[in-house]
């Protein structure tokens, strides 16, 4: 990808900021567009046999610690991305912060209906998350 960007074989690449930094794509591109179009999740999963061995008190502690860890990880990711965007600007790159509202407005009607991959009740629950 680096060479393809460098010699103009491709016009753009799509990666998270840490990848753009690690692969040094910023060296061969002028713009970094922050579309925020991908949402990722880091899950902690506890198998039922283990979970069922825990007391209610331990389950509550476990849930609290997991929520605290998730909130901390999310905050660190947001802060890292802000710092990285600023660093790319210092390196002379144009960082474009996209207003996603018009795009969302144009596509929201497609979020439900025959082509959706989720039931409406699940969609509504996800939309309610802040």
Provide structural commentary.
- This protein has 130 residues and is mainly α.
- The chain has one domain.
- The chain has six helices and two strands, in the order H-H-E-H-H-E-H-H.
- The chain has a two-stranded parallel sheet with strand order 1-2.
- The longest helix has 35 residues, at 56-90.
Short overview:
With 130 residues, the protein is mostly helical. It is built from six helices and two strands, in the order H-H-E-H-H-E-H-H.
Overall geometry: extended
* Discrete helix count: 6
> What Rg, in angstroms, do the CA atoms define?
20 Å
Could you tell me how far the N terminus lies from the C terminus, measured between alpha carbons in angstroms?
A: 36 Å
**Broad structural category:** mainly alpha
Strand content: 5-15%
Unreliable runs: none
Share of helix, binned:
40-55%
Strand order of the largest sheet: 1-2
What is the overall pLDDT average? Answer: 91
State the order of secondary-structure elements, H for helix, E for strand: HHEHHEHH
Give me the count of strands: 2
Count of individual domains: 1
**Biggest β-sheet, characterized?**
2 strands, parallel
Write the SSE topology.
Layout: H1 2-7, H2 17-22, E1 31-34, H3 48-53, H4 56-90, E2 94-97, H5 101-107, H6 120-128
Parallel strand pairs: 1-2
Question: Which terms would index this structure?
Answer:
53% helix, mainly alpha, 6% strand, two-stranded parallel ribbon, single chain, 130 residues
């Amino acid at each position: 990808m680096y060479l393809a960007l460098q010699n103009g074989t491709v016009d753009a690449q799509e990666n998270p900021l840490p990848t753009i930094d690690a692969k040094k794509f910023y060296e061969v591109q002028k713009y970094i567009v922050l579309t925020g179009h991908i949402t990722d999740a880091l899950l902690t999963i506890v198998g039922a046999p283990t979970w069922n061995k825990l007391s209610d008190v331990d389950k509550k502690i476990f849930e609290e610690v997991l929520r605290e860890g998730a909130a901390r990880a999310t905050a660190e990711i947001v802060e890292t991305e802000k710092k990285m965007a600023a660093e790319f600007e210092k390196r002379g790159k144009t960082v474009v912060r996209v207003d996603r509202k018009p795009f969302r407005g144009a596509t929201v009607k497609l979020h439900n209906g025959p082509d959706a991959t989720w039931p409406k009740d699940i969609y509504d629950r996800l939309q309610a998350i802040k």
